[in-house]
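Lab manual, section 2.4: Encoding a predicted structure.

Procedure: take the sequence of the chain (300 residues), apply the prediction step described in section 2.3, and record the output as structure tokens. A sample record is shown.
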Amino acid sequence: MTLSREELARVSAGAGRLAVPSRGRLVAGRFLRSGQGRSGAALLALVFLLAFAGPLAGRWSHTDKDFLAFLQPPSALHWFGTLQTGADVYAVTLRGLQRSLVVGLLAAVLSTVLAALVGAFAGYFLGWTERTLMWVTDLLLVLPAFLILAVMSPLFSSGQWPLFVAMLALFLWMVTSKIVRGMTISLREREFVQAARFMGVPPVTIIFRHILPNLSSLLVVDATLNVSAAILTETSLSYFGFGIQPPDVSLGTLIADGTRTATYAPWTFWFAAGLLIVTVLAVNLIGDSLRDALDPERPG
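Recorded output:
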């Protein structure tokens, strides 16, 4: 059978489209071929499953107290043991894990969005816009974040944890914004950006349609790594009593309480500390694998 010239062209075009996978498929393939990426994703999925579905399997709530079992080791009745107050360690630990995961994810997303906007606007507009935004960035870089959050800790009472998330995100974005600014300055001179400018496309549209999509690799990796940074920062602040405030709990508050009894009742400490280590490890494995998968110089 003989094909016409038009049919041959269509077949060749179709073969070309099949031969050149999209960037999303290429990145997904690289990530899935990475052993540490798969391990990190599986670990993180298990952590989320345990945090949000695990309480359904337990018989105790994080607010329940068993006044017949004070500081008891793990048993069939209390899988992770009990605290000095009679609270079930399994239920309380999963409640703390939920709070730490939510705080880490929200703070990471907010800080990455803020870094992207500040860096892109500063790098594209330059002039007084850049000077003002970079002055604010430099000011926040030199401010003692831990001290400011500690002073504001009375505001983070139960029910006010979103304010803590916002304050935490406020001190995580500055370094990334400087990187975004430098890359934006380079991108604004590229042909596709100049073509859009000459066609009369508004600057804000250019930033959101052309600049930020070309920085997506950096922003995705930054957001992933910021999750572990936010979780560790929240844990450190809560450990010293400056983060999540009672009666709410997080992994940091649980670890702080567990250190007092860790020598003779290790179950009050090790479950929360172990889940913190596993969570941060999983996020870092995913972040490293994403960084490798998004590397444009890496062969497919």
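Check your result against the sample. Residues 11-20 have pLDDT under 50 and may be disordered.
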